[in-house]
């Protein structure tokens, strides 16, 4: 890691065994980023845009930044957030206020500064022009991790977005503006179809499964359901796991998940080997 200046190759780039080919690793840096905008989206969700010229141009879809919220002076830990959008030397986050870190973040104003470490982690594999048709599945702020993938994918597909209620449905219009078909589900039926997001996905796969690939980010029960559907239909799927993190750079082991190996399973780090894993690699049963 370098502070503010030159970058060096991160540890996670070296020889990782992965079922899906990893995207090109980007050097990570720590940099002070000035807030350009920090505005409420719907309900508890905010959009934050910062100037981060050393990080923004290097971000791959599904990667994240580890953010030190400078007004939280007593907090040792950074908070991880997927990079939602990138434009030139700026990047945006889409975050939900759930605790002291995100609430402090929501009080910050343009001109104030954050410390960013990134880009971090292995992201999604961008579909090839002649590859499978992508089906994206997002729950709540999981949409933030999938937007860049939709934007950079040469193949357009379907996006299934779900949440508890209307306020949890984020960036529907933006996915549509990229030319993707969007299917909305809310658990209370206040917007789109009533139910959970995997139901319209199940119906779509029953209609037509071959030649498709699933990409998902959201709560763990949703990811497990997506993994089961992929297995039932024999489809590839990449899942972005949401694990609590400490260091974000592979040192503290706070974020480990059980990953299958030839001889059984071993713990791997969500912050470096992930957060995106091929669903066939994840040993869910070992996590129970
Ligand atoms: C790779 C990755 C990408 C993420 N991307 C986003 C994003 O794009 N947008 C977004 O809003 N959030 C994202 N998160 C979750 C985000 O990091 C947490 O919501 C945030 O750290 C909470 O900080 P806090 O100080 O407000 O909450 P805390 O005060 O630390 O915690 C408040 C409550 O939230 C729970 N919590 C804390 N961290 C997580 C977590 N990672 N997952 C689930 N529950 C948690 C705590 O157990 C506690 O109950 C991501 C997490 C990971 C690992
Ligand atoms: S968060 Fe420290 S090893 Fe992953």
Task: Write a compact overview of the structure shown.
With 288 residues, the protein is α/β, with parallel strands linked by helices. The chain has helices at 100-106, 143-152, 172-177, 198-207, 220-233, 284-287, and strands at 29-40, 45-51, 64-68, 79-82, 85-87, 90-96, 113-120, 133-139, 158-163, 181-186, 193-194, 212-217, 237-240, 256-261, 264-269, 276-278.
Q: How would you describe this protein?
A:
With 288 residues, the chain is an alpha/beta fold. Helix content is 18%, strand content 32%. The protein has helices spanning 100-106, 143-152, 172-177, 198-207, 220-233, 284-287, and strands at residues 29-40, 45-51, 64-68, 79-82, 85-87, 90-96, 113-120, 133-139, 158-163, 181-186, 193-194, 212-217, 237-240, 256-261, 264-269, 276-278. Helix 4 (198-207) packs parallel to helix 5 (220-233). The radius of gyration is 18 Å and the shape is globular. The relative contact order is 0.15. The protein binds flavin-adenine dinucleotide (FAD) and FE2/S2 (inorganic) cluster. Residues 64, 79-82, 93-96, 98-102, 141, 144, 242-245, 275 line the site of flavin-adenine dinucleotide (FAD).
